[in-house]
Amino acid sequence: MRVISILTIVVFAALTARPVIAQVSVKQYGATGNGTTDDTAAINNAITAARASNVQLLFPSGTYLVSGTLDFSSLNVNGSGYQNTTIAANVAMQTSTPFDVVQTKGGTSLANMTIDGGWRNGSTVRTGNGIATLSNPGASPPYYGYGNVFENLFIHNVNSSCIYINDGAYETIRTVRCEAFGIAGLYLDSDNYPGFATTSTVVDGQSRFSSMAPALSATAGYGIFIKDGINIAIRGVTIESTKGIYVTGINLRELTFDSVYQEGNAGPYMTITGCGYGLSVTNSFAPGTTGIPAASVSCFGFTTFYGNTFSTPPNNPNPN
Fold it and tell me: Is the distance from CB of 244 to CB of 252 less than 8 angstroms?
């Protein structure tokens, strides 16, 4: 009986133990995280090692200054929480050429950290995007920025967009807080390759996009900007102190916005200049903000609007 009891304990412990995740820490390769030393070279060495060994790349607590883009393609990258781990653009070493703090060509999981672009209101610092997901079907070999997961992140002080996705697919954005951007909080783009569109993207988990920074153009300064998108679902998101949602393009299908709140009266809830079918806006709320003008949805087929409250009617434009 004693043997059986010991075996039972051993088996139970084996079944309930947390799995050990193989990791490479950036500090193993010389990154300091002290907020004053430029850690770009050390982090890139750690990236190479993590990718070669197919293990997680870990950023322990600290502030890691970088003077160039970090390529996190095909990596699982984890911090120690957005309050504890920061990757920050090294303002002292920046040139006039903007750079994205993080880029991926697909297959990236990035979680639990802050990304600081270093851009301040009125600053001449030129930072690109906080995170840029890129596709290039014409490259040799071609690459597609598919299958990324961005979770539990705080992204701020970026000259362009907090998250920029070009012709991506199967993207998940969850519990992301974005502040102070020049173009958009989330930008879904298809400029580079006509006929392509960002597809199958989900944004949820109480993500928040807010900015009081000056917009860089008339079509900038939106919480969410969509230029051609298919099967896009935005749920439980707050847009604050900035313009709401901008939808444009000729390849727009199955766009769903549910429980998307706009606060701060900084512009219309939704601006539509494109055509498509399958637009659903439900259970959304924007006090002090113009809603969705009926004329703007005239180029959309199969529309659904219900449960919305905006200060300027119509709250629920008649479906086509």
Answer: no
Determine the Cα–Cα distance for residues 130 and 104; give it in Å rounded to an integer.
11
- Between CA 67 and CA 56 the distance in angstroms is 23
Question: What parts of the chain have a pLDDT lower than 70?
Answer: 1-21, 94-96, 120-127, 191-195, 212-216, 265-266, 288-289, 311-320
- Domains of the chain: which residue ranges? 23-312
Contacts of 18-23 with C-beta under 8 Å, sequence gap 24+, read 21/55, 21/56, 22/53, 22/55, 22/56, 23/55, 23/56, 23/57, 23/58
The rounded distance, in Å, linking the Cα atoms of 106 and 171 is 9
CA distance 91 to 111: 24
* pTM for this predicted structure: 0.89
**According to the CATH classification, is domain 23-312 in 2.40.30.200?**
no
130-175 residue pLDDT tens: 999 998 888 888 888 999 999 999 999 998 999 999 999 999 999 9
Question: 140, 159 in Cβ contact below 8 A?
Answer: no
Q: Which DSSP symbol is given to 92?
A: G
Per residue in 295-308, pLDDT (tens digit) is: 778 888 888 888 88
3-state secondary structure of 315: coil
